[in-house]
Amino acid sequence: MSKLFGGLRQAPARVLAGVQTGVRGFVLKQVGGRVDLSKVDRVPASLGWPLEREGLDPPGRLEEMRAEHPVSLLTTFLGIKVWLVTGYDAGHEVLVDRSGAYSTDIRPYVGKAGADGGDIGGLGFTDPPDHTRLRKYLTPEFTRRRLQRLEPLVDAIIERQLDEIEAAARAAEDGVVDLVPLFSFPIPFLVICELLGLSDERRAIFQELGSARFDVSSGGIGAFGAISGSREFLLAETARQRHAPGPGLIGQIVRDHGDEISDYDLGGLADGAFTGGMETSAGMLALGSAVLLEHRETWKQLAAGEADVDAVVEELLRYLSVVQVAFPRFATKDVEVAGQQVRKGDVVLVHLPAVDRDPSFGACPHAFDPGREVRSHLAFGHGIHRCVGAELARMELRKAYPALARRFPDLALVRGTDDLDYFGSSIVYGVERMLVRPLG
Questions:
Q1: Residue 202 has what pLDDT?
Q2: From its phi and psi, is residue 338 left (phi > 0), alpha (psi between -120 and 50) or beta?
Q3: CB-based contacts of 381: which residues, under 8 Å, 6+ apart?
Q4: Which of 51, 225, 407, 432 is the most buried (most CB within 10 A)?
Q5: Exposure of 10 in the CB half-sphere (CA atoms within 13 A)
Q6: Measured between alpha carbons, how far is 284 from 273 in angstroms, rounded to an integer?
Q7: Model confidence over 40-71: pLDDT tens digits?
Q8: Distance CA 198, CA 106 (A)
Q9: pLDDT at res. 207
Q10: What is the Cα–Cα distance from 161 to 163, expressed in whole angstroms?
């Protein structure tokens, strides 16, 4: 299993590509240019620096910006102003807006990649009424009631990975193992395969595509080929399950809605479920474990079954906020945000780690404190584009952290959180590897 997941590295570039292609798309649209931005290969430093953390913390510059004003001009890129929201109230205001002041639809601006619906499209880059129509198919599959059927499978997957960790630790001369390929990546990958209803033989093919998609070390942010590969696989899987519905999400939607939903739309929804269900949970499982291992009292409570697991998970979600920016909002008209004038055509980015470290969260918002009274964090976004898989992610975290602590109460980091191999500029934050000693 460790070899199978060894190729997974950084989170895919689809949202980061959206930030730049969307901005540039607005410029070219205004001047009448034909847009094909699928070959964009870099984000300028003036736009990308907020994605570079200081260990587990957002850049200190963001706190300085928030202190001056919760909405700041990040940069002017190709003649378009890009605003960065770092205050909680302002971020909440932007994310919940239903007035039509913002659009997230960038598909018309990415040439061939967007002409047919968009390889970087999906719910996050879709406006109502298309968004409303598509989300209604997906939402019922992610309710707590529907997800309960996955609980025994999630438990079994976690236990299987804990067995692999123990076996690897006993086989290693120094007892050191990497928690990333043994724990944080395989758990959400296998869960999402169960959710989608992929057979074992299909998973091996899907894994190869997933590895390419998550590794952006060579392709920069223009890695549309890998994105297209996994999407095409899921389109083909959807067509196959149209005739032989499987036990998971794809098959259930086929049974419930039949020809009401096309293979293209259903394949796109499945692809979005994979993207959102995989990368965020993997980042949270790795980084959350690291945080807990440096807070030994909480770790001991988890191991003994004495912790308020829900409170621990919600505080980790707030504290880490691994999704670094929400889907970019393109102003469709002049709008005022926290007293700041934003003009039609400007781009608004909500920095989720910054808003979730807002002083309104109480004393020491930069500290991990599962006992704090947490107002609703924005780690999953908010409004119509709130992560549809939020409850699935919560289920995985609530089960995985205590199980890891119970099995390995003496688990320890080889290197502290200040010295981990963190991703560089990545929309979803995480670590390349995380070495631990499970057996003390």
A1: 62
A2: left
A3: 95, 323, 326, 327, 352, 387
A4: 51
A5: 20
A6: 17
A7: 556 678 888 999 999 999 999 999 999 999 99
A8: 30
A9: 59
A10: 5
The model's pLDDT over 139-187, given as tens digits with 9 standing for 90+, comes to: 888 888 888 889 999 999 999 999 999 999 999 999 999 999 999 999 9
Provide CB contacts within 8 A for 373, sequence distance 6+: 362
Structure-token pair, residue 407: 């099995």
Q: Among 119, 133, 160, 137, which Cα is nearest to 18's?
A: 119
* Contact criterion met (CB below 8 Å) for 324 and 351: yes
Closest residue by Cα to residue 131 from 386, 302, 417: 386
**Who contacts 99 (Cβ-Cβ below 8 Å, separation ≥6)?**
none
Other CB atoms within a 10 A radius of the CB of residue 378 amount to: 26
- Spell out a b/e string for 309-322, using b for 16 or more CB atoms within 10 Å of the CB, else e: bebbbbbbbbbbbb
List strand residue ranges (DSSP E) for 317-419, in order: 329-331, 335-337, 340-342, 347-350, 412-413
Contact 425, 156 (CB under 8 A): no
Residue 392 and residue 187 in contact, taking contact as beta carbons nearer than 8 Å = no
The values of phi and psi at residue 351, to 5°, are: -85, 105
Q: Which CA distances in Å does 218 have to 23, 41, 213, 413?
A: 24, 10, 11, 29
DSSP string, 236-277: HHHHHHHHS--SSHHHHHHHHHGGGS-HHHHHHHHHHHHHHH
Give me the chain's average pLDDT, please.
83
